[in-house]
Amino acid sequence: MSFSDLGLMPELLRAVAEKGYDTPSPIQAQAIPAVLAGRDVLAGAQTGTGKTAGFVLPILQRLAADAAAPQRAPRVLVLTPTRELAAQVADSSRSYGKYLRIRTFQVFGGVNINPQISALRDGCDILVATPGRLLDLAQQRAVDLSKIQVLVLDEADRMLDMGFIPDIRRIIKLLPDRRQNLLFSATYSDDIRGLAERLLRNPLSIQVAPRNAPIELVEQRAYRVQKEHKRHLLVHLIREGKWPQVLVFTRTKHGANRLTQQLEGAGIRAAAIHGNKSQAARVKALDMFKHGQITALVATEVAARGLDIKELPQVVNFELPNVPEDYVHRIGRTGRAGAAGEAVSLVSSDETGLLRDIERVLKRSVPILPTPQFEIVESAPQAQGGASGSGGGARHGSHQANHGGERREGHRAPAQGARRGGGGARQWRGRAH
Ligand code: AMP
Q1: Same domain membership, residue 170 and residue 68
Q2: Ligand 1 centre and the CA of 338: distance in Å?
Q3: What ligand 1 atom has the least distance to the C-alpha of 310?
Q4: In this structure, are residues 363 and 337 in contact, taking their beta carbons and an 8 Å threshold?
Q5: 279-318 b/e (C-beta count within 10 Å ≥ 16 → b)
Q6: How much is the average pLDDT of 30-42?
Q7: Helix (H, G, I), strand (E, B) or coil at 363
Q8: Is the pLDDT score of 391 beyond 80?
Q9: Among residues 181, 207, 233, which one ends one of the domains?
Q10: pLDDT tens-digit map of 12-30
Q11: Coil vs helix vs strand at 290
């Protein structure tokens, strides 16, 4: 199947071809014709499945075909849980729509509201927004939502986790009753089902991966390690594996900052990304990561949600998430667009229960491999308090991994085997059906 089989207009086909996509992903193959036909859609799709193009392409086409367009007020509203996702969806919309005269604008919190107010005055067709900021703008009468024809809830499960549902309800009250609704969610809880039932009319249900299943292409493994030794093991893994790029998840913002300093202290270029960082700092960190200027991006759950980092080969769970579904989201950062990825979890004895919960959701075990020997290198306390790469007075000691909890032998994962080749071709290779 090709994109032209899906009924897309030449301007969109051209933009898609320039992106290098030649085969629609499974979600695109199903969602594009349905959205073009004006149907509501309920899609169970993780990040990395190509879901964004799955809704953006047909929406652009519907807008382009609508001659009687209002001048200023947006006709499409996309709600996302995070600023990063809002920015990414808006970027995708602009790049897929580059041969059309459709204006996309994004608004989110954490930055000055005034430039957003004046930009909205100029008008846009597609508005991508995080819920809180959109409500602020609506209260200040800076945005008119009465012309919305299509509402998209992207990563609805995450919006629910983040407590955005009351905001979303308030926003929906500001929209016209007659509209098309699209709901995307990686996981399905009863709350999401309830939301979908209230919101969607006779939706087409699309499920591109089994419920709560991880992306098949991600190779998962875990190491047992004492909490206080995790950072040394991480340094060892990055060095030995010569990892060019790794996304590391910590549970807290403070933990992300501390680990970033520790990695820097070990001579590994790193930056942290979390909710306490300014938008500018987050964009800068992400940019440096994407351009290979730093090796490790240390992130909390929320900050990393929806990040589209092309073909990220490596994710590390420095700490396991409390909610098993978050594990699915985290490892969904790798293996994007059909590329293979590796997800490594560092599991301390107090996390054994969390690992068990994750395995229950995955319906499979995560192979636990023998912990490699790694070196413990303590940086000497520094007078300036900052981390530096020089590491004068480092205390070295070889460490034979001490396995706190019970140890299970894993089926040894097909270590480097499943790595992707070349990387040039952007053909859809996922088998997420
Ligand atoms: P998403 O799940 O929407 O975040 O998209 C994941 C990644 O897949 C993005 O980097 C897209 O650029 C890429 N992508 C989307 N559709 C295709 C396709 N049909 N072929 C190859 N790559 C794609």
Answers
A1: yes
A2: 9
A3: 10
A4: no
A5: eeebeebbeebbeeebbbbbbbbbbbbbbbeebbbbbbbb
A6: 96
A7: coil
A8: no
A9: 207
A10: 999 999 999 989 998 999 9
A11: helix
For residue 290, what pLDDT band results from cuts at 50, 70 and 90? confident
The helix/strand/coil state of 379 is coil
Q: Which two tokens stand for residue 371?
A: 């912990």
Residue closest by Cα to atom 19 of ligand 1: 24
Is the C-beta atom of 50 inside 6 A of ligand 1?
yes
| 321 shares its domain with 395 | no
Instruction: Say if residue 88 is in the same domain as residue 236.
Output: no
Best of 428, 429, 431 for a ligand 1 pocket test (most atoms within 8 Å of beta carbon): 428
Pair (177, 273) in one structural domain: no
Cβ(56) – ligand 1 distance below 6 Å: no
Region 39-66 average pLDDT: 92
Residue 242 φ/ψ, nearest 5 degrees: 45, 45
Best residue among 3, 184, 426 to mutate for probing ligand 1, ranked by most atoms within 8 Å of CB: 426
Ligand 1: residue whose CA is nearest its atom 10: 310
**53 CB near ligand 1 (under 6 Å):** yes
Is the beta carbon of 310 within 6 A of some atom in ligand 1?
yes
- What are the b/e assignments for 220-255, b being 16+ CB within 10 Å? bbbbbbbeebbbbbbbbbbeeeebebbbbbbbebeb
Q: How far is ligand 1, taken at its centre, from the CA of residue 53, in Å?
A: 7
Helix 131-139 to helix 113-122 angle (10° resolution) is 70
Rounded to whole angstroms, how far apart are CA atoms 345 and 347? 6
What average pLDDT does range 151-159 have in this prediction? 92
Count of domains for the chain = 3
Distances (CA, A) of 332 to 19, 107, 184, 303, 309: 21, 25, 15, 14, 11
Pocket of ligand 1 contains residue 25 by CB under 6 Å = yes
State the residue for tokens 């396991």.
Answer: 320
pLDDT tens for 216-234 read 668 899 999 999 999 999 9
Q: Is the pLDDT of residue 147 over 60?
A: yes
Alpha-carbon distances of 311 from 300, 308, 339, 369, 423, rounded to whole Å: 20, 9, 6, 24, 9
Overall average pLDDT of the 282-293 stretch: 86
Q: What is the DSSP letter of 143?
A: -
Q: Which domain covers residue 162, as residue numbers?
A: 3-207
Q: Which of 375, 1, 323 is nearest to 160 (CA)?
A: 323
Ligand 1 contact, 325 CB (< 6 A) = no
Residues 245 and 196 in one domain: no
Q: Determine the 3-state secondary structure of 208 from DSSP.
A: coil
